[in-house]
Amino acid sequence: IVDVTTAAQRARLRVHYLRAWELGRPFKYFVYLPPQPLEPGRTYPLMVVLHGLGGGPHGWLTLGGIHNLIDEAIASGKLPPCIVLMPSGRSGYWSNWADGRHRYGDMVVDLYLDAVRRMYPVAREPRKVALVGASMGGFGALSIGLQHPDLFGFIAAMSPTDMAFAVADSPRRKVYRNVFGTPPDAAAVERVNPRHLVQRGFGAPYQQFLMSYGSREGRRFGEGTELLYAAMRGRGMDAHLQRVEGTGHGWRSTWVHSHPWWLAALGSYWRRSTGPAAGVPASSP
């Protein structure tokens, strides 16, 4: 059950099903609309938020309280009215699996985006579309965003998984074998791992990247994010890093500190119409 605070908020939360029969089942997903009724002839920025491993789209509401933060940011003028898409990706790591059939990465860019565009007046310009994720979702946001700058301009990732470290540390873990084969194929890992994508030149100058992690997280989240940030800065990319001191991996620790930071940056990014984004608010661990 999704706990959305007020009746007015519940009225703005739409539940849909993606008929992804190629993946063997339909997927429930949510769309959260702006506080004011949609205006005819107007398009709205789109925010796509990806959940973590073992979670679902409801976590952004019940644990992250993202709806309240978005409403507050819109009311204060820090964020323009926007439409929020909360997809479900099960434990697919938002990636196309080695078996060639479970295409959880393509599901985001081909199926979910197409569905929300057909039903709602969302903007299509990449600078008006944000991709955000936590943990597995942070990996997905970075991996998909880097590979599709034609679709996503702003990418925020909280505690993103560095897949090279994750697979090296736990090569027998079932979810990694699902995605990358048995045993996991190192070349397949590098094809989608954000750090390696940056090293191979993926990404666009107009994209902005915000990444955060807690100082008590393992190397696949902490050290991996630091190396990714260094690779981005080495290429002159518009990347920003927040290290939250004394926190671990989860909604109530690191990520609750990160939400206001990346939301403020997103509002600033959306207010600019051309050129690379700048002026990211200072992080406040």
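The above is record 1. Record 2 follows with the same two-line structure.
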Amino acid sequence: MFNPRLIALLVAFGVAPITTGCPKKAPVEEGPVSPKQAFVNGVALLKTPNKAGEIDYAAAYAQFEAATLGQPDYGKAHYNAGWTAEKMGNGTLAERHYRQALAIDSGHVGSLFNLANVLTEQGNGIEAVNIYQTFLETHPDDISVRNNLMEALTSAQMYDDAVLQAREVLLLDPKNVAAYRNLSRIYFAQEKYGMSQLCADKAKTLAEGDAGIYNNIGVTYLVLSDEPAAINEFKTARQLDPDHVEANLNLGYVALNSGDYKLAKECFEQALKGDPGTLDGKLGLATSLRGTKEYDRSAKLYDEIISADPKNQSAYYNASTLHEKYTKDYKKALKYLESFVNNTNTGQIGPDHEVYDRMARVKESQEAENERKRQEDEKKRLAQERVERQKQQFEELKAKVGELDTLLTTYGECEMMVESGGTEMGMMVLEQAQMVVEAEEVDMAGDVMTFFDEIMPQLQGIVPECGTGGGAEATPSEPAEEGAGGEEAAGEEESAPAAE
């Protein structure tokens, strides 16, 4: 079943930050640069992809930060630094820069709204509500701000007030799609799924090409456990807007849940094109890459998430799992869990926290891996010994083949050898042994040697009964010369008189 926690993570509907105009790329000067030049360099980096086809937001942020350090009252630099930090997924940095930009120019609308948006995404909806409400006091007919206020109120769980804002918007504009879309989110947050679906359907009739509507309907189907219908809605949203962040995130997590890492990877990469700073997208992509065995890239993404959000438990846990179960680097796995404790332990992590169970599991996994390697090394050692033993047996077999061949050549026709079956058995063993030797079947040498150990003692036991040779008559070692009358050759003395 689809994880409800993932649904909660994925139903985040952000407001795109206001962007600045970006000039053509300018060269980055070596050494110290003026705040103005650093600002220009940062804008150029935002506009120009690197060799990998990606925008280097970290490098751009470094330029904007340099500009603010060189000129603390550089409001535009603070604004751009905040916007770039958002793209990096670092809401804390973004919030700090937007606040500094507003301290310099309290009327900077871009900083005001982007700050409220960051606060909403970070769960600080109350402050975001105050920002929007203050603005509406002087701009009561600004519908877009009222829609943003609805999102902040929903984040703050002030649902009744959010519905009232929706009514205000619809009084001003009865066909306002964003209002119905926000109503769908409000009812969804209250688990009123029927009402959520009705509002989404109404929004669809007003703007059939709005990808966000189809995404919202898909999320509702997920909660209602109708995954096929949800997938269809997400796919429709992606067809309407290939880079739609939420639709790609939702379909990506559905794909992850079913083990389709290839589809999940494609979805999360598209989500990151729409919003390079989405940590949910990076987390999903890192997990997908783990499934496609792209471990180095996966590890890099986990580090990016942790750098942007040092208290992101999921990133620490997933990075630890990557190294525990896949790269087998247990020191790294343990280090991530220890870093989580060190970065988060402000009274939140007690001795019973699950992180300590994970640490214990990593240590157990390391011990199990060490034992596995020990057994594997032992198997290799035994296998090598077996190979060496087989080689030795093969050499012994070659020697015994010659020994048996000589024995059978000499005594194979002996009557006792033939009648006992020794000749036939010996020939069979010899033939098999010769085949093994000719084919160099080293691993079979031991089996054939077993036959030799059985047959050779038997044959050697028969040999004495065969006399000095293998035939019926003895064959002298040297031929005798016959003299006249069959007597011994002249010149030799008789050792005893001949019997009559």
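Confidence is low (pLDDT under 50) at residues 1-29, 469-500.
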